[in-house]
Every structure is written in C-alpha cells, then in structure tokens.
Write a structure and sequence with these properties.
heterodimer; A: 441 residues; alpha+beta; Cytochrome Bc1 Complex, Chain A, domain 1; 2 domains; 7-stranded mixed beta sheet; 5-stranded mixed beta sheet; 15 helices; B: 421 residues; 6-stranded mixed beta sheet; 43% helix; globular
C-alpha cells in the first residue's frame, strides 16, 4: 500500500488553474477544473516511448499501447470501449519516442469512469498469449498502412540516418522483423518493467468537483503498487562529423526531399531558439497553438513558402522541430512541383538556408512571428481535451513550468541569437538528407 | 441573452435579399468565434471539361483579396491569431473564419473581402494548379484514394454529381481560367443560395448587420437548380482490382448509392451505419474484423447523405493476401445487419454513444460550429439538434435492419481493391 499523498497549487497555465497531487506510490496528478465545461478529459502520460526500447524490442511501447485496450481485471476485453463510448465518450492512445499517452474525454458527469479504468490498467493489463498474437497482426497492419505513404518511408529513413546509437533511430511503430519475433512473455516483461505510477502523470481537466475527484484519485490510484523503472536513456548520440545522405525510390507522385540536422533537447537553453526558427522557416506555431502537432495549412508569409512554393519549385515545404527529452532533429521537407528536378529544389533550399544563417531574420519578421505565437497561445487551452493534452505534454517532457519558460524565452530572443542558432543547427557536416524519387519518374 | 444559451439552440435572421444567417452561441468558457460562408458551388455540378474548377475557386478564395495579396492576408490573420480556410464538397463550397472573439470586428472584414473581392492573381492560379496536379497524381497512385475514386466511378454513372472527386484532369484544370472563375464567383458563390453560419456571442441581428454592411446586395444571383440524378445501375459482386506495385497494403472500398438526408428513414439508416462501422470501437466491423480476427488496423463505414443523393462506403486496409477474405467478411456483415440480427442491447449502446458524443462536440467553438454548419449544409430545421435525440430513440431494431436494406443496398453496390499484387 502506498504512503501518504500531498497537494500543491501551481501557477496558471494558459489561464487554467492547476492543482498538483502527489501520491505515495509516485504518481503525480494534475487537476485543472474548468467550471461550466460540458466535458471532462482524463489522460495518463507514461514517460515511456520508443526511446526505452532496444534492438529486438522495437515497437514494444506501441504494442503495449494496443494491449492496454485488451482488458484488465475489472474491465475485460471490450468493456472499456463499451463503458466509455456507451456514454458518448471518446478514448484513444498514442505512442511517441519519449512517451505514451492514453486519453478519454467524456460528458462531465462521467469523469470517474475513465479514472477507474486507468487505475485498473496501470499495472494489471491482460497480456495473454492469444491476445498478444492477434494484436501482433493489427500492429503489423498499422505499419503496412503507414508504408503506403512515401512520406512515412522517407521519415523513417531520415531518423535512421541521423542516429546511429540513440534509440531515436527507429520509429515508434518498430521494425516489422521485431514485431514478428517478439513474444508475449517479453512484451509483458517490458510492460511490468516500465508501466506504473512512478513513470506516470495523470491529468484531469474539465468540469468536476476538485475535492471529490482528488479523493477519488487517492482511493483508486493509491492501491496501485509503486512500480515503474527509471526510463532515463543513457545512450548519447555521438556528434555527427560528416553529411549523410541516401536516395530512395518507391511509389509516389513527384520527387521530394527530407532533410534533418541535430537539434537541442528540450532542456537545453537553445530549444526555444530552435522552436522560433521552425516558426520563421515553416510557419507552423505547433505547440504554441491550438492545433499542437497538426498542420494549420500553408503559411504564405514563412521563409520556405516564399522561396520554394511561391516561386513554383515546390508544391509544399515545411519545417519541424518538436522539443524532445534528448537532442532531437530539426527537419525540413519539400516536395517538387511536377516537372521540377529534385536537384533544383535542393539547391534553392540550400541557398535560402545559407542566406538565413548569414543574415538571420529581420526584426520585423521576428516581431511578426512572435506576435503570431502570442496570439496562437491565447486560444490554446480552449476545451478540456486540449487543456489536458497541453498540461500533460509539457509536464511529461520536462516538468512543470516548461511552457511558460519557453514562451518567456521566445519573447526575449534577439535576431542575432536566431541567426547564431541557425548557423549552429544548419551545419553542413551535421546534415542528413533523404532524396525520394517515385518509381518511373 | 446571447452567450449563455446552449450551442445546440440555433436561431437565424434573413436579410432583405433573402440571405440567411444561422447563429449559434459559443460553448461556455470559449474565447473564440467562427463564421462560415456556405455557397452552392461544389464540384457536383461542374462540367467534366472544367473538372477541378470548384477546388481551384475554393483555394483562391483564401489566397488574397482586395488590396491584400496572399502573404499580406496571412500576416493579418496571424497577427490576430485567426485562420481562414476553405473547403469544398460535391454540393457546397465553404470559407470559414476562426479566431479570438476579442478580435472579431477586425477579422470579419477579412472574410467578407475574401468572398467579395478575391484577386485570382495569375501566379496564385498557377500555384493552385500545381498543387492540384500533384493531388491528381496522388489520387491515382495512393491505394486509399485510388480505391475510393474507382468506387465512385463504378457506382455512379456519367453525369451523377457524386461520381467525381473534384480534382479534374491536367487538361480540365488547364482550361479553367480567370474568366471562368469570375463567372463561377458571380453566378454560384454570390448567389441567393448562399448562407452564413456564425458561432459568436453577438446576436444574430448584430452579426448580420456587420456582414450585410460589407456585402450589401452582392449575393443576388438566382439559386442554381439542383442537378438531375441519373437512375441507379445494378452493382457487381466481383471487385475491381487496381494494381499499385511497391505499396505494402491493399485498400478495400465497398459501397453504393444511398438515401438523401431528408429521407424519413434517415435516423434508422444513420444508426444502421453506426452499428456497422461508424461508431468506431463499438462497431461490428471494428469488433469482428480487427478485434476478433486481427485482419485490419483500420476498418469502418460511412454514410454520406446529401441533399441530392447519398452514398455509403465501407473500408478496410489489409495485407494483400487476405484482401479477398476481408471483402467477403464486409459483405457478410452488411447482409447480417439486414437479416434482423440487431438486438435491443446493442442498439441501445450504439444510440446512447451517438447521443452522448454530441456533448463532446460542445468542448470548443470549432467543434460546436461544425454542428451548426451541418444544419445549414443539410437544410435541416434550426431545432434539429434538440429534436435529434427523440428521433433516434424512436428507432427500433427492426427499423434499423429495414433501413439498412435501403441505405446499404448490396444490389447496387460495387467494390474495389487497390494495392500491391
């Protein structure tokens, strides 16, 4: 039985007041009441993702994610779906390199239902042989579906090219060979090793009685044994000393380019610089916006759009830098317009990056992007699901206060500092490139 | 008093020229607003020789207006934390503005200018053509989109508004010039059949005043008549196979024509689709194809009932070697539904799930706004969302089975399997 629990009140997050609860078994819970909201959203974030896997075990975190829908003592197979969806709720999960998140959003009066389910499956999910075997076919099918998209193939290759030692080198879906070979006992062992309150963050947002829910959480989750081995990854990726590239071919439409450079981890001082660089080049405000990971469409005022799309060389061009626990990858993707050779597009991209690294952004450009970020964050906490996502995401990556810290930094960064960050990141010797040419083109 | 009502309660005003504005309160605590302009200018009525025209027009309506080019328009939106996006379907073309309610009065002119005075700049026209050309290629080479395109060609005969997917061909896109776009704008976008849907704290009268002040009496073209729907043709049990080498997975599409939204049996048909594959984790396809047999990661069904006609599509992605078996199971599940195998408990679960999920749509402005837009698109009564629960609760298991025979009719169905050999 776990020991006593404590509570503390955190600062505001996007105007949402958050209370932190800590149970004796190591579980941290964030409660974000939103009076008047029609729903409540319950998320459990495990600091376990594909970074915690090793060769032969790739795809295990994602497979465990699937298995947690296949039953637990109180909710046998199908019972979770029926319980949540039966009241009109929504449930899902996703696996990333750094974490796995399970979410349910329900009409507010049913908020205890997903909490009960999460407590039951935190360390007691069913992992029997036949279900693991059946789910193997499903995860293989998910991977095969992803392979139908050339962008997935190129992205997987890009990360494999960029990382030689660190587990970021494989996709969270895992290698098909590992998925075929991994058996139920090893998958169950992986689950028992990493999944537990010590590695979990529970987030509840929406309309609920704070005192009653805190009591309910204590009553359900304090019974969960204090498990969850430290998921810290010790492997350090050696500094890349020369450009790496590969050519791929496969199904597709027009040639495209996927490029990447080693970037900082989320806890490094330059993480905010890289995020700002991403908005300047590609235009997506990402975590500073309501759409978080999703795309908000074209960004005609961004650098890449103006140089590559508006000039007729590309049909799309984007950059991406997502903050990660370990040094991540700053990527740029661009797809040729029909009839444009890949080399011409790549040369134009290189020229733009050189120009940017040499001159940096103008003050006006930087001010506009900063304003765009400020405005985007204003609505970023609208709705219980979105609020729980944001609270959980930032906290899981680097603890409380990360979002505010990044925003404070973004407000202070000067044009010269962005230029310096661009020079450091877009170093030719640290570049990885995948050139994808469709079959028959 | 505006601002405290349920977003499920809609009201409307009609301008002097006959343009209707549907208004919805935003969800409690929401700080954003949204306005959609909906015009009867979808691709369902465009001539084959001008295929892609509606998609071109739709993209260009958010690509610069009045004195702002595309980049300047984007900068203004960014500075106010807003988005402006367009969409197009066989029946409608829409432009949606979303942003902070605090900036509403500075944002509304960006929407009205985009509708009234799109620039149709030659460089932008060329850019959108390039994007659509790539989309045409993608549609032919990507298994999921290719299967869907071929399915619609099999189930709808020439001239049917649901037969095409609106991308056109390289030749038809090249034929759509600025003059054609301006004609389309004047005759179908600036028409009396257009409507506005607003989710805002403003009253219907207040938002209407702001819009009509900017738009004046521009929306005056006569509403285009609905298209003629060709008679249905008998389907085929034998799937069309499209070989797309180099892919990993086969995509299966099975479908046929279905009911219009105004059909009295629509609520029962809606539930039939939810039981079959619409209500994700609870549906029969998900439970029996994925959860019991592990044959596919994704499988489900969709019922798209429009004003002119409807269609249903069942889908699954699976390993090429088992595509025949999965298609046979899809057929089997549809037949089972028509044989009266639905029990009261299963129907109750699906129905309560469907009804409960409406509450989830009220989390934020964008989702709630979608409910109001649906009312406008489907020409539903303003009280639709308050009456819908009773309509669904009146449906019996026998009615679902009976409706499935009409709404998911295998006699007019066809199938396509696209993927590697």
């Amino acid at each position: 039985m776990a020991g006593p629990s404590s509570t503390s009140v955190q600062a505001h997050n996007g105007g949402v007041h958050v209370e932190q609860l800590r149970l004796g078994n190591g579980l941290t819970a964030l409660l974000a009441p939103m009076p008047g909201a029609p729903t409540a959203s319950v998320w459990v974030w495990y600091r376990v993702g594909s970074k915690n896997e090793w060769p032969g075990m790739t795809g295990a975190s994602h497979w465990v994610e699937h298995m947690l829908f296949n039953g637990s003592p109180k909710y046998p197979k199908g019972a979770m779906d029926r319980a949540i969806m039966g009241v009109g709720g929504y449930l899902n999960a996703f696996t990333d390199v750094d974490f796995t998140a399970y979410l349910s959003t329900v009409p507010a009066s049913y908020v205890t239902l997903p909490l009960d389910i999460e407590a039951d499956r935190m360390s007691r999910a069913t992992m029997n042989q036949s279900e693991v075997h059946r789910e193997r076919k499903v995860v293989l099918s998910e991977r095969e579906g992803a392979e139908n998209w050339p962008e997935f193939r190129a992205e997987e290759e890009l990360w494999a090219l960029a990382y030689r030692r660190h587990p970021y080198r494989w996709d969270p879906l895992g290698y098909p060979e590992d998925i075929r070979a991994l058996d139920a006992p090893r998958l169950a062992e992986y689950y028992r090793r990493f999944y537990g309150p010590r590695n979990a963050l529970l987030v509840v947002s929406g309309r609920f009685d704070r005192v009653a829910i805190a009591r309910f959480i204590r009553s359900r989750f304090s019974r969960v044994p204090a498990t969850g081995e430290d998921p810290t990854v010790r492997e350090v990726e050696p500094v890349q000393t020369g450009a790496r590239q590969t050519d791929m071919t496969g199904p597709g439409t027009t040639p495209f380019l996927a490029t990447g450079w080693a970037g900082p981890s989320v806890t490094e001082p330059t993480a905010a610089h890289a995020m700002l660089l991403d908005v300047l080049l590609g235009g997506e405000t990402r975590l500073f916006s309501t759409s978080s990971w999703g795309s908000r469409g074209d960004h005609p005022s961004s650098r890449l759009y103006r140089r590559l799309v508006a000039t007729g060389l590309a049909v799309r061009a984007s950059s991406a830098f997502g903050p990660r626990v370990h040094p991540g990858l700053f990527t740029i993707h661009a797809q040729c317009a029909a009839g444009v050779p890949l080399g011409k597009l790549e040369a134009a991209l290189d020229r733009e990056l050189e120009r940017f690294a040499h001159d940096g952004p103008t003050r006006l450009e930087l001010d506009e992007v900063r304003e765009k970020i400020e405005q985007s964050t204003r609505l970023a906490y609208e709705g219980a699901t979105r609020a729980a996502f944001r609270l959980g995401y930032f906290h899981t990556l680097a603890g409380a206060g990360l979002e505010d810290r990044l925003l404070r930094q973004v407000r202070r960064i000067r044009p010269e500092a962005v230029r310096e960050a661009a020079r450091a990141i877009f170093h030719p010797a640290r570049r990885v490139t995948v050139r994808y040419t469709p079959q028959g083109s | 008093m505006p601002g405290v009502e349920s977003p499920l309660l809609l009201d409307s005003v009609t301008w002097d020229g006959g343009i209707e504005l549907i208004r919805q309160s935003p969800p409690v605590g929401a700080a954003s607003f949204s306005i959609t302009f909906l015009a009867p200018a979808g691709w369902g009525q465009e001539p084959a020789a001008q295929g892609g025209r509606s998609r071109l027009l739709s993209a260009l309506l958010t690509s610069g207006a009045g004195t702002w080019n595309r980049a300047e328009l984007a900068r203004r939106l960014d500075a106010l934390g807003a988005t402006l996006h367009s969409d197009v379907s066989p029946e409608n073309l829409s432009v949606t503005l979303w942003g902070p309610e605090a900036h509403r009065d500075r944002l509304i002119p960006l929407l009205t200018e985009s509708i009234l005075r799109p620039r149709f700049e030659p460089l932008e026209l060329a850019r959108v053509r390039r994007e659509l050309t790539e989309r045409q290629m993608r549609e032919l080479r990507q298994p999921a989109s290719r299967a869907e395109k071929e399915l619609f060609h099999r189930i709808f005969s020439r001239g049917h508004p649901l037969r095409e997917t609106g991308f056109g061909s390289p030749a038809s896109l090249a034929r759509v010039d600025r003059a054609a776009l301006r004609r389309e704008l004047a005759t179908r976008v600036h028409s009396r059949g257009s409507r506005f849907i607003a989710t805002t704290r403003l009253s219907a009268e207040e938002v209407s005043r702001r819009l009509s002040r900017a738009l004046g009496d521009v929306l005056e073209a006569d509403l285009p008549p609905p298209p003629e729907i060709p008679p249905r043709t008998r389907g085929s049990e034998t799937p069309q196979r499209v070989e797309l080498p180099g892919n990993s997975q086969s995509e299966i599409r099975l479908g046929g024509p279905s009911l219009v939204r105004s059909d009295p049996e629509y609520p029962a048909a809606y539930l039939a689709n939810e039981v079959l594959g619409g209500r994700s984790l609870l549906s029969r396809l998900f439970q029996r194809i994925r959860e019991r047999r592990g044959l596919a990661y994704h499988t489900g069904s969709e019922l798209a009932s429009g004003l002119w006609d409807g269609c249903w599509v069942v889908e699954a992605g699976t390993a090429p070697a088992q595509s025949g078996r999965v298609l046979s199971l899809l057929h089997q599940e549809i037949r089972q539904l028509g044989k009266g195998t639905l029990g009261r408990a299963e129907l109750h679960r699906i129905r309560e799930s469907a009804l409960g999920s409406i509450e989830l749509e009220l989390e934020d402005t964008a989702s709630a706004h979608g409910l109001a837009v649906e009312v406008a698109e489907s020409a539903l009564p303003l009280q639709h969302w308050t009456e819908w629960p009773a309509q669904l609760r009146a449906v019996s298991p026998a009615a679902v089975s009976s409706a499935s025979l009409r709404a998911l009719d295998l006699e007019f169905a066809s199938s396509v399997i696209a993927g590697p050999k």
